[in-house]
Amino acid sequence: MHGMRLADVASRAVPVPIAPMPIRPLSVLTALLHVYIALRLLPALAMLTAAWPLALVALAISAFTIPLPFVSRRSERNASLKEALKWTGLISMGWFSSMFVLTLLRDVGLLLTWLASALAGLQVPWSALLPWSAMAVPVVATLASLVGFLNARRTAAVKRVEVPIQGLPSALEGFTIAQLSDIHVGPTIRSDYIQRIVDAVNRLGADAIAITGDLVDGTVAELREHIAPLAGLRARHGTFVVTGNHEYYAGAHAWIDELRRLGLKVLLNEHVVLQTRNVRGAQNDEELFESQLVLAGVTDFTAGHFDPAHQSDPHLALHDAPPLVHTRVLLAHQPRSAPLAARAGYQLQLSGHTHGGQFFPWNLFVPMQQPFTAGLHRLHDMWVYVSRGTGYWGPPKRFGAPSEITLVTLVPARG
What we know:
single chain; Metallophosphoesterase_sf; metal-binding; membrane; 13 helices; six-stranded mixed sheet; alpha/beta; 2 domains
C-alpha cells in the first residue's frame, strides 16, 4: 500500500459499522449519580432554606432530559420537538457535569476538614459549613454553565500564533494558515453558526485554510445544508481537510465525497505542493523549490479501526514529495500523531481533538490520552500546535478553554 495513494484504494474498503450508544445503561448510571448528588446536598440545603425542593426539581429534570438527545435521534416525527429535546438534554448534561464534580469536591473537602479537625483537635462550625457549602454547589454550577453557554455560542475569537521554522526560506516568511478544528456541526451547531465562522476566516485573508477534523456529528443527509457555508471559504491556495474520529462515527466515505463536492480538498495520507510565488523567471531549481511548501494531511489516528485502508500514516503522506522542498506542514487531527510525524521530517503539525478540555475538569484528563492539550509545543525538531477547537462537542459549554480560529504564521527561527 505504501506505493499507492490512499484515495485510490479507499473505495474498495468496507467500513466498520458503529454500534449505537447504549442508552439504557447510560441513563441508569446518570440517574444513580443524580441520586448521589441529591443525598449529599438536599439534607444540608434543607437546614438553610425552604427552597430546597427547587434543587430537587432541577435534579429530576436533569436526570430525565439527559438521555433525550440520543433517544430523539431515533424518531423522525416532529422536527421542532426533536430540536428542543436535544437542546434541553445537552444543556442539562453540561449543568449536571458541574454539579457532579462540585459535589464530589465538596465531599472531599469535608472529609479533609474532618480529618484535620480530628488530628489537630480543632472545632469546626459544621452547622454553618454543611449548608453553605451545599448551597455553593448549585450556585457555582449554574453560573459556570451560563458563562460556559455564552462562551460556546459566540463566534470563536482569532488567535494569532507565530511558529519559528529553522531554515525557513525568505519566500515563505509570513505564510499564513487559518486553522479550524472540532467544529462538530450537529444538534446545536447549524448553518448560521458556520456562516459566522466562514465570514471571520475570510476576513483574515490567509494563504491557506486547514480544517483539522471533527467537522461533523451526524450523517450527510442530516447535515448537508448546515455544512454548505464552508463552500464559501476563501484563501489563496484553498481549503484543506483531514478526517477526525467523529467523521468515522458519522460515515467518513460519504462525508469525504460531500466535502469534495463543496470544493474542499480532503487529504487522505497525501500531500499537495503549494507554489507560493510566481517563479516564471526563476534562475535555478533552488529558487523554485524555496518558494514551495509541502502541505500534507493524514487520516485520524484511529481511522484504521474503522477502515483498514484509512490507516493513518505520516510517512505515506510524503510519498513522492519533492525532496528539495524542506518546509513541510502536516495536518493531523490528534496530537498523538506527532511522534511519527517528527520522525517523518515535518517542521510543523497542526492538530485539534482535545478542545483544550472544553470545560473543567476534563482538561485534567486530556494528558492521559494525548501528549499535548492546547497551544504550541516542541517535539524534537518539530513544532506541534493544538487548537482548542472552533466549536464544541455535546453540551453547549466552554469554561476555561475558549474556542478559537487560529491564524498560524510561519516565521524564521532566530539564533
